[in-house]
Amino acid sequence: MRARYAGGESGARRAARDGAAIVVVDAFRAGTTIAVLVSKGARVVPVASIEEAAGSRADFRVGERGSAKVAGFDFGNSPTEILASEVPSGSTVVLSTTNGTRVIEASTGASAVLTGAFVNAEAVADELAAGGYGQEVVVVGCGWEGRRASEDEAASGAILHRLRERGAKLDERARHVVEGYLTRPESHLRRNSAARRLKRLHYEPDLDFCLAEDTVPVAPRLSGGTFIGGRK
Fold first, then answer.
1. Which of 34, 91, 97, 135 is the most exposed place for a label (fewest CB within 10 A)?
2. pTM exceeds 0.85, yes or no
3. CA angle 205, 210, 211 (to 5 degrees)
4. Spans of the chain, pLDDT less than 70
5. CB of 133 closer than 8 Å to CB of 168
């Protein structure tokens, strides 16, 4: 298996055109939220627009813009809020976020689309290494409104590092991202712009949860427009 790193919507589109399997990484917070929902047995439908989410037929609506909860939705994009709430297994949850769901939409046409974060880096690497996803994997860091996000690069590095341990061959950019993950102190991520934004909005528990590695052992995979767990 070959593994590469790319950034944002443009990187996802290129990877999809290449027919690669894509892992969309939005560590603060969509990738983490999807992992929590799938671990609860929910089916997660990602949509890019608030209007589409609001008009959908779903059991729950989850969404944020600028990290703040969308008015009228059941939950913000808060993994700790959802973890502590009653979301029954089998529920359908529609999700719309500032960055993550847009990059997921940009991945249309890929051979497979998974989501990853720090919380499920091991599970995603295990899923890919088990086979069935082809020989080309692109890990895409979502970023924030078209800009790089250090937390997404670090979480991508966590997944790529585990893929390399399982025999994947990384390109130069992917190796650079792994090196950043291995050498960048967590304290840096706790002080970046995304972390400061979460703290201002009183989501500091989400920050702690999102930075904990391998705590939610699921590998969400897009199937028929819905994220589910399990094998392809």
1. 135
2. yes
3. 105
4. 230-232
5. no
Helices and strands (H and E) in the chain: how many: 11, 11
Question: What is the CATH number for 88?
Answer: 3.90.1560.10
Tell me 147's DSSP state: B
Q: Whose CA is closest to 201, among 107, 98, 125, 121?
A: 98
Residue numbers of the domain that contains 80 = 2-219
Distance CA 153, CA 139 (A): 9
Give the model's pLDDT for residue 146.
Answer: 81
Q: How distant, in Å, are the alpha carbons of 58, 183, 222, 227 from that of 3?
A: 35, 20, 19, 22
Looking at residue 145, its pLDDT comes to 80
Residue 54 CA to residue 5 CA, distance in Å, equals 33
The whole-angstrom distance between residue 163's C-alpha and the CA centroid of its chain comes to 16
Q: What is the C-alpha R_g of the chain?
A: 16
Count the domains in the chain. Answer: 1
pLDDT of res. 230 = 65
